[in-house]
Amino acid sequence: MTREPLGRLLVVRLGSLGDLIHTLPAVAAIRLTHPFAQIDWLVDRAHRELLDLVPVISSTIPLRKPTGDGWIQALRELRARRYDVAIDFQGLIKSAVLARLSGAARVIGFSRRAAREGAASLFYTERVAVPDAGHVVHKNLALAGRLGAPVHRLEFPLMPLPSGALDELTANGIDRFALVNGGAAWPNKRWPPERFGRIAAWLHERHGLRSVVLWGPGEESLAQAIVDAASGAAILAPPTSLTDLVALAGRAALMISGDTGPTHVAAALGTPVVALFGPTDPERNGPW
After folding, report:
1. Which label site among 36, 39, 224, 236 has the fewest CB atoms less than 10 Å from its CB?
2. Which CATH number is correct for 164-285, 2.170.150.70, 3.40.50.2000, 3.20.20.190, 3.30.70.1560?
3. Which residues pair with 235 in a beta bridge?
4. What is the pLDDT of residues 24-69, one digit of tens each?
5. Which value, to the nearest 10 degrees, does the dihedral of the CA atoms of residues 113, 116, 122, 126 take?
């Protein structure tokens, strides 16, 4: 562990949305310890918009394409910045290689046992062992502790910005609402849409709460099925960007969803969450 002044730090966590949220407390703790450091974050282009809402980082560097050309472009930019330290919160071989090829003098990551892909640890100059049990937020904080950051301080720094989607709901008289998300990248994380619809109908009958159903690319028909099953108690959300998602999740009275990125965004903003878990372990990956 070090509390020496830190000049330039590269954070490597490419995705996914929920994993980025679970990395925020560690990066916020590093910022607290090193208030004058340049902290840059290497992230997949698809998620860059979320990190634009994180005030504790200095800049984002997008990995624009998962191809050789995309890597060369990103690495050229990374090496030009001459980082003192790179810290890999992802623990995959690809993220470890990117951290090592950044040119940073110190490359910090999880031990072989703790990394998601054990071989990733071969690319680190410093390896941090963490317990097998426990939430990933605590594992990330333990990694940040190598830079002197407090490991028990929890902060999710997200700064909501004006949102066209939220403005549209407000203009239609919907100020108080539940947010429902039935989609998920993994099919086995999805709850049947008719059950979401019944929950939405119950919320409206018992609490007078309308439900707004989120949808992403390829999910509009799934969201519409939830609306159709809700007996008039739910509406489709407008098309949403990540900025819109943060604004809607922060305004919602309640979030109901499976283990997906929007769930973790809502929890990070302090919105009450009902999270439905199946193949994943909520003790490790649950909303905070």
Report:
1. 36
2. 3.40.50.2000
3. 212
4. 999 999 999 999 999 999 999 999 999 999 999 999 999 998 888 9
5. -70
